[in-house]
Amino acid sequence: MKRFFLLIPFTAVAGTLLFLTACNTNQSGGKGQIWERELGAVANEPLNPADAQKELNLKVDLIPEGKYGRRIFREMTPQYITIHSTQNPTGDAYAHAKALNRGALRGGVCGYLCWHFTVQDNAVIQHIPTSERGEHADFDGPGNRYSIGIEMCEHQGNNQVVTMERTAKLAATLMYHHKIPIENVRAHYHWPREGYDPPNKDCPHFLLENGKPGDTWRWFVGRINMHHARLVRYDEALREQKIKEEEAKRRKQMVQRVWSIVSDWVGLS
Ligand SMILES: [Zn+2]
Question: What's the pTM?
Fold first, then answer.
């Protein structure tokens, strides 16, 4: 009995804590809460990965092979996706492609900066194949050696929220094609740069809180995860449909076999 009475206050406290946590979860999301209202919730319906690819409006404009950022061929099997923002108020995705293609951005280990994709509100431009390493995160660290680098544009007139959403869709598509788990989608912040103070860059700055990943970053990653789930659901639906079709086929064959045995037996054929 005593134990029962002890249990009541404990349950009440635990219940209140749970309620508060739930409220807190609803209120989290940082700036994402405002952006979510603008974008609307991610749809639940399965999405054909080929259609998702088309929605990106992807333009391939690769840095010439053997030049600038691709001066040295360095093969890569992507295991991570790194999200950046350009912090450039004047250059759109096309201007960045032009700069990369003529070796205008110096730095990194090979002498030239390069990354895989630049995203603006209405398009994505690819600069290097996802099977080659870039120079965008942490010199010779794992961010460069194993991750696909995506830059989000910040030029004037560009819709920042739509750019983030296009980036989320691109990241989801890349996760799907390269089998990259959601925990391996990283902000540039996550890759410390040796010799820098602070080593962790405030990038992509508008998705971080006080220079660090917080609620807004978690909201963004959640959005990528939901886009990715739609692609996975499409495959699952296809698999289920195939199983159903095979089952129907098997049943039809069985009926035909039984019918033929019965027909033989009663001398119908
Ligand atoms: Zn960055």
Answer: 0.85
